[in-house]
Give the backbone structure.
Amino acid sequence: MTDTIYSSVTQYLDALKAALSGAPQGLIADALADCEEHLRGAIAAHPEKSEAEVFADMARTYGSPQEVAAEYRAMETPPAGPFSRPQSETITPDPAGAPRRWTLFNVYSDPHTYGALVYMLLALATGIFYFTWAVVGCSLTVGLAVLIIGLPFFMLFVASVRLLGLLEGRVVEALLGVRMPRRLPASFDTGLWNRIWGAFTDIRTWSSLAYMFLMLPLGIFYFVVAVVGLALSLGLSLGGIWTLFDGGRHFQVIDGPGWAQSAAHNPLAGILFTAIGMVLFFLTLHLARLIGWLHGRIAEHLLVRP
């Protein structure tokens, strides 16, 4: 334990954030939210004491920022789900901190590859929902601003944006393997105007709203890439295999030269189409994993409080 004396919640949280440097942003956000709630609750429970006195007492019970950071790192567990790696693979660091290598064939054994594919297929539906919710909410907020119900509606809309951001974070963590916040931060503002101003000035309110707008074009792109990649690769592979059994009787080359039509009925054509389909499926998996990694960084940047 260090001998540093902290006199305010902000000072302690800054030290905790520095101690957690290098940890996933979602873990840092949860640790800061838990710590702030605990500290402010302790201060509120002892109104007869100053913040400095409360911190002096808590230094012996709660621990220093370095000790708290070590506890959070030790308690961190990988997300549970069908697309998560085994815990032994997740918590064991690579030698010298080396990142996990992307080789030519380990894409098949990485569950996050298939999680990314599922996320890409769902992204169109979630993107349409998020975009519609954001557009309708912003429109009604502006339209009702002149009425007495405008401010309560704005607060409800902001709360819904934060809740949807938390739910989206849980989906991203389960399917893409990116550590996201697992709880909403507590609000310590008192009074209606303070709460409104706090929500209006919170950068995560607007970054989460931007994420909801962004999900429509991203969702369309993800869905098209996943459907076209899977349909084309599986169609060629299964069609090539079927050609080997029926001699190519159901495989036609329309408006093609004679040699192409003859080649389509050759068993070698079935082998070739099967090989091309397998290569395309392999490339689709790699593209899905790359998209999953990139979207995880986008979600981490926009949905996690900096």
Notes: The first helix runs from residue 9 to 19. Residues 105 and 282 are 9 Å apart (CA to CA). Confidence is low (pLDDT under 50) at residues 87-99.
